[in-house]
């Protein structure tokens, strides 16, 4: 079986789509964590899966409604020094 130019183009396109899907999944997981934290939903085991069932647009609407009540100090930003130290630790970004 020979590889044609179309096959190579399709493989590149599939790889790009796969990367986009992985990025979208990672962003949705982070958004779930942010919603749980900002809305102070607690640490129950099934909270994150329940929040994950919500549409991303609805999660963003919830965060926009709550934005006025979030202080800048509690934003939980990671500065560059902490990021480089904790880069390999996935727990560094979770509460």
Can you lay out the helices and strands and say which pair or pack?
Layout: H1 5-38, H2 47-52, H3 56-66, H4 80-85
Keywords, separated by commas or semicolons:
mainly alpha, 4 helices, elongated, single chain, 95 residues
Query: Helical residue percent?
Result: 55-70%
Total beta strands: 0
Count the helices. How many?
4
Judged by helices, strands and strand pairing, the structural class is: mainly alpha
Mean pLDDT: 80
Largest sheet entry: none
Low-confidence stretches: 78-95
Distance between the termini: 52 Å
Q: How much of the sequence is in beta strands?
A: under 5%
Nearest-angstrom radius of gyration? Answer: 19 Å
- Written as H for each helix and E for each strand, in order along the chain, the element string is HHHH
Shape: elongated
